[in-house]
Q: What sequence folds into this?
């Protein structure tokens, strides 16, 4: 089993704070987002959420009628997902929550295969992104979908390499320095938006539109998200096609440092080859 090397961001702590203010509207937006990305009727489909984090995407899939299996490497993230299951689907046998790693081959071997394997904004935080993508793709059954979101690589002084160093520093820094950096980063973002004519207050108020997330918690997740890797869209496409010959059926490309989304289909021919 490949382990994440320290320093590493405490994702679960951030998501547990996020859940204290989770609204019905955010849940509705997350449900719409998952449905739009997958693009298929999820009723009675087996849906695997790798790196479930807050549990919001798992909740969305369950609300869409899927049989959900959620797992995360981080114990507090597992607790967050369990909390959403307790709140909205208490005692539901169609939603399983477990602790595990996408880098742990023996654990993955116990799971079987799924109609939809979903991992948004997770595999690039494992410390072994390409192994994580390959392991996740092996869990897609014939005719199933592989839906992933991966950070987009950017070169230059403000690109991926610089942010990797900043994120590593953040995770090693004492808490007072982290708080100072969080405040500076968020203030800089708001001022930058105002400078180009965007309304920061409106942006924060409407941030949930898209994936149901919170601007503040996403900003902290971005700052602290380490380990941190990225890839160009072309690298993702070439890797998945070469390893599995999956067919790309949808992509939403981010032109900056954000997450690019990919949905691949595993064809019956792949399963026989």
A:
């Amino acid at each position: 089993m490949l382990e994440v090397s320290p320093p590493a961001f405490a994702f679960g702590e951030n998501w547990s704070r996020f859940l204290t203010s989770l609204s019905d509207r955010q849940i509705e937006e997350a449900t719409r987002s998952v449905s739009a990305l997958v693009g298929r009727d999820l009723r009675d489909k087996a849906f695997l959420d790798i790196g479930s984090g807050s549990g919001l995407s798992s909740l969305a899939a369950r609300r869409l009628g899927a049989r959900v299996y959620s797992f995360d490497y981080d114990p507090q993230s597992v607790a967050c997902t369990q909390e959403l299951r307790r709140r909205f689907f208490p005692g539901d046998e169609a939603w399983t929550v477990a602790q595990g790693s996408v880098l742990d081959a023996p654990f993955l071997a116990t799971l079987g295969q799924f109609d939809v394997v979903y991992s948004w904004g997770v595999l690039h935080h494992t410390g072994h992104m390409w192994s994580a993508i390959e392991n996740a793709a092996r869990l897609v059954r014939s005719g199933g979908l592989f839906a992933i979101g991966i950070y987009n690589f950017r070169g230059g002084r403000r690109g991926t390499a610089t942010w990797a160093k900043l994120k590593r520093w953040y995770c090693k820094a004492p808490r007072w320095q982290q708080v100072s950096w969080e405040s500076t980063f968020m203030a800089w973002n708001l001022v930058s938006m105002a400078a180009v004519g965007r309304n920061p207050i409106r942006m924060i108020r409407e941030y949930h539109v898209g994936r149901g997330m919170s601007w503040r918690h996403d900003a902290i997740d971005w700052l602290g998200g380490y380990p941190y890797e990225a890839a160009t869209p072309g690298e993702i496409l070439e890797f998945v096609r070469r390893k599995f010959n999956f067919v790309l059926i949808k992509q939403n490309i981010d032109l900056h440092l954000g997450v690019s989304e990919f949905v691949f289909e595993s064809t019956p021919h792949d399963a026989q080859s």
Q: What stands out?
A: The chain has two domains: 11-154+228-272, 160-224. Strands lie at 46-50, 67-72, 95-99, 114-120, 140-151, 247-252, 259-265.
